[in-house]
Amino acid sequence: MFHCGRWAEAFVNTLEKEGGDADEGLEFLKVLASWVKKLPGDVFGSYAAKMAETLAYDAMDKAGAVSAARETAVRFIALVIKKNRIRHIDGIVKKVKSILDKKRGIIEVSAEYAFPFDDVMEARIIEELKKQTGAARVELTGKVNPGLIGGYRLRIGDEIIDASIRLQLRKLLEVLQSGQADAAGGGN
Questions:
Q1: Number of other CB atoms surrounding residue 17 within 10 Å
Q2: ∠ CA 60-61-67 to the nearest 5 degrees?
Q3: Which end of the chain is more exposed for a tag (fewer CB within 10 A), N or C?
């Protein structure tokens, strides 16, 4: 079984050891991954890895953009190609971002809301999340879900914070139904 996390940790550890800028390394890894995925046919094996590495180094030289982070990304993508793991590159990149975010105290929060947040509401939610989680920064992304009727629902990793009107109405209905059951049972 393939573990994206192990490959991502190896990439991050190599970046740190080589003194590469983590943001630059991640961004260049994304660029290389996107480029390799667009190549026709299956790209794997030693020959394909060497060709990809050569092309990437040539492009960096021409652009004058050689750095420790970019070199680490090139060597890493060549290894991924050589070991025929390119189909897992999106999972690896996602895990690299997650590892780097955790080290920096950044949390990603996805929101569903009945109506788009205004700037004041978004700022209040971000500040409350920082206070509750101890995060240095909150990256909030969201989408409208009219089915919520009102309020919002936040997802932080595996945790969900539901502050929707729909949930409150469901709870109220359960309380009312429970009260009717008690009254019908002859609770004198």
A1: 10
A2: 60
A3: N
DSSP-derived secondary structure for 126-153: HHHHHHHH--SEEEEEEEE-GGG-SEEE
- Quote the CA–CA distance of 120 and 139 in Å, as a whole number: 16
Same domain? 89 vs 15: yes
Give me the domain span that covers residue 145: 105-184
Residues with Cβ within 8 Å of residue 45, at least 6 apart in sequence: 81, 82, 84
Summarised one tens digit per residue, pLDDT across range 97-148 is 999 999 999 999 999 998 888 899 899 999 999 999 899 999 999 999 988 8
8 A C-beta contact, residue 109 and residue 80: no
Which residues, other chains included, contact 115 with Cβ-Cβ below 8 Å and sequence gap of 6+? 144, 150
Type of residue at 142? G
pTM: 0.71
* Residue 20 shares a structural domain with residue 55: yes
Report phi then psi at 162, rounded to 5. Answer: -105, 110
Closest CA to 142 of 119, 109, 107, 97: 109
